[in-house]
User: Which sequence fits this backbone?
């Protein structure tokens, strides 16, 4: 099919590819220098460029779009004053726009000449305290049994590292050397990326970064709306059941009702089960990430950006299984709840004859299960390797 | 670990000024304590007084404790190491208006529950004064609410670790640090208030100290502090000159560590040489997998506590005393573990054994001055969801780990806490019943359980506590079963401790060592019998009139006193029969050192409670 596009849209997409390459290289640099097996996983590290409102302009890998969008916006809204003062903010707190306790996020102002922008980097850490080595506790009943939460804290002011904050983080990790290396590396990668962006300047045909940001989001929004409107059938409902053998929890419903109105895809999770004392509770970032993942096709051939999320509205009941806001554990949610959400969305989108992107968790479950005991269920992920069910093997990868 | 000596360059002050300044700093500590008690939120502060305040000093020669309020010695002595760690961490980057917080046991702490807040005040000669607070916090994350996790095998499983970090920087609160701290507790709404109360207490301390500095000048205050330390040192050395030189050994044993290790030994050898002491823990058990390892700060603290408890009371307690004491705690032993060994129980259990081990060595040097310093017992933290107010709660049940203040020469065991926890206060149980969903059916001394001695110990304490809501959980630990609270100079040892879960129900069981996260439903009763501190001296030398008073106070029955003390009381008249007493005593062996009741016969009254909470509520009385 021949597509006729405006030159502006073409240049926007071209610009996204140019910036995207820088982000891909930054991710590769971080992964390549990390001593941690966890960070070396291809899916695990994500970097994004955000505008002043925290909307995603460009991101690598695309699978992280939804989750990083929530995280980024939350942190920008909360810490804009600190970020304006050239401070680097760090957090792993699932309840401040985060995902799970193992995911550390750094945000810094990009210091672009013509437009306020932020860079955000997320990477998983091997351990951040808690009851079990690896900070994944299949029997956790609250967040504190999983690990230590670092609220958005100032890791660096200007070029001066806050050694107190750094030590506070490292003290609470069983593998402080790995984490220290990754934190220092993350700072260096973000600095280099900001420098590369400044050197590059805004994409051609745009006088400023700000105008390019605006165009990206506008075009992304328009592209998404066009594809949503073009769907041949109306969206439907879906209910998925989530279980967690280690907590003896069975068949908790995730209820998804979708609606299409004025080019917006409305996804409502009302009726979903309440949050539970088991590590399968998803935060808003995890859930939106899971929703957005199979819907990346709504952008067509346009690289992932926040324009998509302007036309996909997600409603998450507070303190439900899909929007935990306090106390409950979240560590296993990317592999259970999130996957169920993505499966359901994919099914709904396929039913609408939309292009569905293949999906998998944005990070790998622990390869080495340390001393976590199986609960005895034959499909328990923490049983012996030979007893893995298909469900668990879906998440495993060949290392 | 060595304590510093005074600087030769300090300014001279007269004795009167020194005393005024010293007492002023003690008063500052008291004011800080009062502030904290009134301003903090958790009952651990306002009811139980589980905190300590003091003023420390540092100069080029080292760190010294200058003054402290009526406090918990185990807390405040260990603060010396906190300041040393602070100085090492910040390397001079300490400014006016900074407030530093830490809790890590391996960086100047004792166990993760005890948080230290300090506000350095720099003086003109480069030295510092530190108004300081150390307090036991209700919850700080970790696997188990309250932090006492008998299944912990490493420090990370116990809770949030805070290395020395500035909570307030040049007068501005670090909101990010504060929020991170509050993110790692299950009771942020309470801990936020407690934390700010601690900072406020330090602010009060700073204000008062600056007023002192303004009145007398930095030089005079430094001189007074130095002289106060020197004075205490002179006094204690004069006391030590009366102690016979030589080596003296002591031993105390902890039943278990909840992780499979049993009969954990703390061995002490005190060497008195000239006017100095060396306390050597060589030969103590290796560090254990369970949570009873004692970091160096805690070990030194307990050793100092035993020394201070045994020395004359008119010697001021400050680092001047500690200058005379050298401590050797071999690395890798239970008294100086290598990280990441768990340590949560250490302030009471193994800590108490350290104190008693030192005291047992002192028994051979200054027998008239010794007595029990250990809690010697059980532990219970309670947490859950209070359906009355729809809030999570966590607290320590003091009702089953107090009353171990044994006898000393000239005084019977007094109620409640021994020396190392002397600032702790019995909770008012009516207040506890309002604050937490519990109902106390029994909370009292028992009869025929006080360890005998010329001066008797304290009776065992019986507690029965009913859960009035579902969703209540306890973490419980019992020690002092095999290795009981010791007696002194021939006094009897305490009775074995016991805890029962689901008392007087079909699910009743007696606790063996420890359990975590035991669920108690509404109506379930937690029961305990907690040993009192041991007796002092030969029971056959106890004043018969005192024995009669004990009987009249229902501490003993007639048969028991005849058996233990050789005292005959006429049952019809309740008068002493001195002739029969003398005869009986003449017949009896002088080695009466057993507890009044055997373990088999010691039981709680099963007729209690007769009325449960549900019945009371139905009657409209709750």
Assistant:
């Amino acid at each position: 099919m021949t597509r006729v596009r405006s030159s502006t849209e073409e240049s926007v997409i071209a610009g996204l590819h140019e910036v995207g390459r820088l982000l891909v290289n930054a991710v590769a640099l971080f992964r390549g220098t990390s001593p941690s097996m966890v960070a070396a996983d291809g899916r695990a590290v994500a970097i994004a460029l955000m505008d002043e409102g925290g909307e995603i302009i460009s991101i690598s890998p695309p699978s992280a779009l939804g989750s990083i969008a929530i995280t980024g916006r939350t942190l920008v809204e909360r810490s804009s004053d600190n970020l304006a003062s050239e401070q680097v903010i760090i957090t792993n707190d699932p309840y401040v726009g985060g995902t799970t306790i193992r995911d550390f996020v750094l945000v810094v102002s990009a210091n672009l000449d013509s437009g306020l922008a932020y860079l955000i980097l997320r990477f998983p850490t091997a351990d951040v305290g808690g009851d079990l080595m690896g900070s994944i506790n299949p029997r956790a009943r609250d967040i504190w049994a999983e690990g230590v939460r670092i609220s958005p804290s100032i890791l660096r002011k200007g070029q001066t590292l806050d050694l107190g904050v750094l030590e506070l983080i490292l003290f609470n990790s069983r593998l402080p050397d790995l984490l220290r290396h990754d934190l220092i590396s993350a700072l260096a990668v973000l600095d280099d990326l900001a420098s590369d962006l400044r050197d590059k300047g805004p994409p051609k045909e745009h006088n400023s970064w700000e105008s390019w940001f605006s165009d990206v989001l506008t075009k992304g929004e328009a592209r998404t709306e066009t594809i949503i409107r073009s769907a041949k059938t109306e969206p439907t409902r879906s209910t998925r059941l989530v279980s967690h053998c280690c907590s003896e929890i069975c068949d908790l419903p995730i209820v998804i009702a979708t609606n299409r109105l004025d080019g917006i895809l409305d996804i409502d999770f009302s009726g979903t089960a309440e949050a539970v004392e088991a590590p399968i509770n998803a935060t808003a970032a995890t859930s939106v990430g899971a929703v957005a993942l199979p819907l990346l096709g709504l952008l067509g051939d346009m690289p992932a950006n926040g324009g998509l999320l302007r036309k996909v509205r997600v409603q998450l009941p507070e303190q439900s299984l899909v929007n935990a806001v306090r106390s409950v554990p979240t560590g296993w949610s990317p592999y259970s709840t999130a996957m169920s959400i993505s499966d359901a969305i994919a099914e709904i989108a396929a039913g609408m004859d939309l292009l569905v992107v293949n999906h998998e968790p944005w990070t790998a479950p622990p390869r080495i299960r340390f001393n976590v005991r199986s609960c005895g269920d034959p499909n328990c992920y923490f049983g012996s390797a030979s007893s893995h069910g298909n469900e668990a093997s879906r998440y495993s990868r060949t290392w | 670990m060595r304590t510093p000596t005074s600087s030769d360059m300090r300014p001279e002050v007269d004795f009167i000024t020194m005393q005024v300044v010293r007492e002023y700093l003690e008063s500052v500590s008291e004011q800080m304590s009062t502030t904290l008690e009134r301003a903090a939120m958790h009952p651990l502060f306002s009811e139980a007084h589980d905190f300590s305040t003091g003023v420390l000093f540092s100069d080029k020669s080292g760190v010294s404790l200058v003054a402290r309020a009526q406090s918990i010695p185990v807390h405040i002595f260990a603060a010396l190491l906190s300041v040393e760690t602070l100085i090492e961490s910040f390397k001079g980057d300490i400014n006016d208006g900074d407030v530093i917080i830490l809790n890590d046991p391996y960086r100047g702490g004792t166990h993760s529950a005890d948080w230290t807040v300090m506000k350095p005040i720099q003086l003109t000669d480069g030295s510092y004064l530190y108004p300081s607070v150390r307090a036991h916090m209700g919850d700080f994350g970790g696997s188990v609410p309250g932090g006492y996790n008998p299944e912990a095998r490493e420090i990370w499983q116990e809770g949030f670790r805070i290395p020395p970090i500035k909570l307030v920087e040049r007068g501005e609160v670090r909101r990010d640090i504060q929020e991170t701290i509050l993110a790692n507790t299950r009771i942020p709404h309470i801990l936020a208030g407690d934390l700010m109360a601690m900072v406020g207490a330090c602010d009060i301390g700073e204000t008062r100290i600056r007023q002192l500095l303004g009145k007398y000048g930095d030089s005079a205050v430094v001189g007074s502090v130095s002289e106060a330390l020197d004075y205490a040192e002179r006094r204690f050395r004069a006391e030590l000159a009366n102690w016979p030189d030589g080596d003296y050994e002591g031993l105390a044993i902890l039943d278990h560590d909840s992780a499979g290790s049993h009969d954990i030994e703390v061995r002490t050898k005190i060497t008195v040489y000239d006017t100095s002491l060396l306390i050597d823990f060589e030969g103590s058990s290796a560090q254990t997998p369970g949570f009873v390892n004692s970091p160096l700060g805690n070990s030194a603290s307990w050793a100092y506590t035993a020394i201070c408890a045994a020395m004359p009371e008119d010697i001021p307690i400050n680092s001047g005393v500690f200058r005379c004491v050298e401590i050797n705690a071999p690395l890798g032993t239970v008294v100086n573990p290598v990280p990441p060994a768990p340590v949560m129980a250490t302030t009471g259990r193994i800590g108490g054994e350290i104190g008693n081990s030192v005291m047992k060595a002192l028994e051979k040097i200054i027998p008239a001055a010794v007595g029990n310093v250990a809690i010697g017992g059980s532990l219970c933290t309670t947490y859950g969801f209070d359906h009355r107010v729809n809030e999570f709660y966590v607290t320590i049940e003091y009702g089953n780990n107090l009353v171990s203040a044994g006898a000393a020469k000239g005084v019977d065991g007094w109620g409640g806490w021994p020396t190392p926890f002397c600032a702790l206060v019995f909770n008012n149980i009516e207040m506890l019943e309002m604050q937490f969903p519990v109902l106390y059916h029994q909370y009292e001394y028992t009869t025929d359980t006080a360890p005998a001695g010329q001066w008797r110990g304290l009776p065992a304490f019986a507690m029965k506590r009913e859960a009035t809501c579902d969703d209540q959980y306890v973490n419980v630990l019992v020690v002092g079963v095999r290795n009981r609270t010791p007696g002194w100079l021939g006094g009897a040892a305490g009775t074995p401790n016991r805890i029962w879960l689901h008392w007087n129900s079909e699910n009743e069981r007696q606790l063996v060592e420890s359990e975590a996260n035991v669920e108690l439903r509404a109506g379930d009763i937690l029961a305990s019998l907690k040993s009192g501190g041991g007796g002092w001296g030969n029971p056959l030398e106890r004043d018969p009139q005192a024995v009669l008073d004990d009987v009249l106070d229902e501490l003993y029955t007639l048969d028991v006193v005849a058996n233990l003390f050789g005292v005959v009381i006429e049952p019809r008249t309740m008068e002493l029969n001195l002739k029969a007493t003398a005869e009986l005593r003449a017949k009896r062996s002088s080695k009466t050192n057993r507890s009044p009741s055997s373990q088999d016969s010691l039981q709680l009254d099963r007729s209690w409670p007769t009325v449960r909470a549900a019945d009371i509520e139905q009657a409209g009385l709750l």
Residues 7-33 of chain A form the longest helix (27 residues).
